[in-house]
Amino acid sequence: MLNIVVLDAFTANPGDLSWGGLAKLGQLSIHDRTPASLVVERAAEADIILTNKTVLDAATLAQLPRLRCISVLATGYNVVDVAAAQRQGITVCNVRGYAANSVAQHVFAMVLALANRIAEHSQDTKAGGWANSPDWSYTLTPLWELAGKTMGIYGFGQIGQRVADIALAFGMKVVAHHKHPERDKRPGVDFVGFEELLSQSDVLSLHAPLSTDNQGIINSTSLAQMKPTALLFNTGRGGLIVENDLKDALEAGIIAAAGLDVLSQEPPRIGPDGLGNVLLSAKNCLITPHNAWATKEARARLIAESVENVRAFLAGSPRNVI
């Protein structure tokens, strides 16, 4: 019997979706979470493993001689030692594009949260602010109209392109910095150099994969080139930002605000002194727990595509191979 093991199922399916499609393809074992100490034990008889953030490094893979395929429940696959897998003849595949709509939606949820300050005005109204106001209308802070503002997009893959679509619908001007501007050009989007992206953007959203070339690309130098009224958003990878530099920039008013769905360490650890990631206490900084991808619709696509990855592998025609 073919054995399929899901090592960390909970984030993809906390109980509102079905693993039935996968169960039809073999003997299925599902674990909500798997600590590193239990990976080998749980995967010892696995022919196929599905993992999201559970690490499968070379030492672990060497103890899994039966393993034939790893399907990553995500687009990023840094949790798998791909070179070691290749040496062992293990096929590694992932899922791409499943969350483009959801992540783009999340970007604008954060943009609007900062532009309109909905939560703050609701809280103030419930606390009596409106009832006690001498005027029939008031604002706690200046509000933003997006129309006419410039949306800057760093990285113009599927998510960046959806962000551009929404920005254009709001009447924004869109500029982008991308490795392949000729390949991905589209009406309404101007491709610019990185320094121009920084200086022109009223709203800057990061969507490039993390690499050695762009590690810490948002730092004290690049932040200083942005408008003091600019909003920065990151739903890509935490490592794109030097977090201490961003906190300093927010505290000093070098940029106006930031919205982050990713951090350098996830989840952020709180030490015995009560201190954790520096951005947890930063001024004008929204932080969400890496859940931009996690709408039910996106998770359903993720599972469906993962099932198809396994089905294709078993049929001898692997798909989405890394």
Number of helices: 11
Q: Report the helical percentage.
A: 25-40%
Rounded to an integer in angstroms, the radius of gyration calculated over CA atoms is: 22 Å
Could you say which overall geometry the principal axes of the C-alpha atoms support? Answer: globular
Q: What's the structural domain tally?
A: 2
Tally of DSSP β-strands: 12
Q: Going across the major beta sheet, what is the strand order?
A: 8-7-6-9-10-11-12
Low-confidence stretches: none
**CATH C-level label of the largest domain:** Alpha Beta
Order of SSEs: EHEHEHEHEHHEHEEHEHEHEEH
- How confident is the prediction overall: mean pLDDT? 95
Q: What does this entry look like structurally?
A:
30% of the residues lie in helices and 15% in strands. The radius of gyration is 22 Å and the shape is globular. Strands 8-7-6-9-10-11-12 form a seven-stranded parallel sheet, sandwiched between helices. Strands 2-1-3-4-5 form a five-stranded parallel sheet. The longest helix is centred in the C-terminal third of the chain and has 19 residues, at 296-314. By secondary structure, the chain is of the alpha/beta class. Helix 5 (100-116) crosses helix 7 (158-169).
